[in-house]
Amino acid sequence: MIRTSRYVEHIQNHAVPFTDTADLEPLIKAASNAKFVLLGEASHGTSEFYTTRTEMTKKLIEEHGFSFVAVEGDWPSCFEINRYIKGHAPEYKNAAEALRSFNRWPAWMWANEEVVHLIDWLHAYNHNQNKKAGFYGLDVYSLWESMEEVIRYLEKIKSPDVEKAKRAFECFEPFHRQAEMYGISSAIYGESCMKDILHLLQTIHQNKKTYKGEPEASLNMQVNALVASNAESYYHEMVINGNESWNIRDRHMVEALHHIENEHGKEVKGIIWEHNTHIGDARATDMADDGMVNVGQLTREIYGKEKIFSVGFGTHHGTVIAAKKWGDPLEEMNVPVAMNGSWEDLVHQAGAFDKYMMFTDENRDLFRETIGHRAIGVVYNPEMERYGNYVPSRLSDRYDAFIHIDETRALSPILF
C-alpha cells in the first residue's frame, strides 16, 4: 500500500510547472546530450502528446544537431513523408497529400492535423539545409507494402534479383493480404514463406551497394526487406506466442533504427516517437515478468544508458481518439479521471496543472515504487480501463523524465 501523501509531497518537491515549450528548456537541454531521445505517449490519439513532442523535436533538430525522427509507423508510408520533406516527392503538393500514404487502419495515428504541423516544419527546415532531417517508420506491419516496394524498385533498375523477389512475394498471395490467415497457416499447418524471404533478405544485403538512382535507395531496400522477413516471423508467432510476437516487433524496431544509424553515420543523433509501452524500459514494468522486451530496454542495453534519454507522457483526464474494436471506425472518447493511487492520480494531487519531472541519481530512489501507470492503445473502452489499462511501473526506472498534461483533448484526424 503506497503512502499517498508521501508521494504527493515528493512530486511537489521535484516537479516543474510548464505552460509552453520555453518552460521545457531544462528538460530539452538534458535530453540533447543523448544519442537517441525517446519521446513517448500514453495514447495514440491525444493532441497534446503530439504537439508537445513536435515542439521538443523542433528544438532538438534546430538547436542540438539531431538528424531524424523515427516513429511507430510503417516504413513505406513514412518513407513517402521522408521523400516529401527532403524535396524528392514533387507529386505531393503539401503535407496533407503526403499523409495520404497512411491508408491502413489506424490511419489517424499519423494522418492528423498535429502531424501536418510537424511535416510542414520539417519541409521548411530542410529547404535551406545541406544535411536534411529525415522521417522514418520503425514498425513491422507493412508486409505486403514493403514487398511491393522491393519489387517496384528492382523492376525499375532492371535488377536480376526481381524474379527472386517475385517468387518470395508469390508465397504470400494465397492469403489475400490477410496477415492473420498467413499466421494461422504458418503456425498450425506449417505452410511458411520464411525460406524464400530469408533468401531474398540475404541477396538484398549482399547487393546493397548496387541500389542507386533514388535518394536513400539502399536504405529503403534493406529496411523493406527486413520488414518482410520480420513481419513473417511476427505473424507466425502472433498465433502461438503473443509475448514473443511483441519481442519480434520491438527487436525489429531497434534493428531498423540501426540501419538508419548506418545510413547517417555513427555520430548521428535521432528522436524516436512511440507509445510509452515501447520507449519506457520494460524491466521497470511487469512486462519483464512475462519475458518481454522493448525499444527502451534494448536501446539502453545496446548503446548504454547514458546514450538514451526516454521521456514518458501521461494525463489525468480528457478526451482521446480510439476505436472500440480492432478495425472499427475511430471515435472521440472521454478519458476518465485517473484511477485512485495511480501515478497520474498522484501527479494530479500534487497540483492540477501541467508539469514535468526529471529523474536523476539524487531523486530516482523516491519514485521507484511499483504503481499503476495508464496506457491507452488504438483500441480502448473507458468503462473497462481500470481492468487492463494500468501498467505497474517504477516510474524513475522506466523513464529519464515524465511529462504530465493534466487535461488533454483528442487529436484531429484527417479524413480522406
Automatic annotation (TrEMBL):
Coiled coil: none annotated. The lineage of its organism: Bacteria, Bacillati, Bacillota, Bacilli, Bacillales. It comes from the Bacteria. InterPro entries: Emycin_Estase, Hydrolase/PRTase-associated, UCP036794_erythomycin. This is Protein-L-isoaspartate O-methyltransferase. Keywords: Methyltransferase, Transferase. One of its GO terms (biological process) is methylation. GO terms for molecular function: methyltransferase activity.
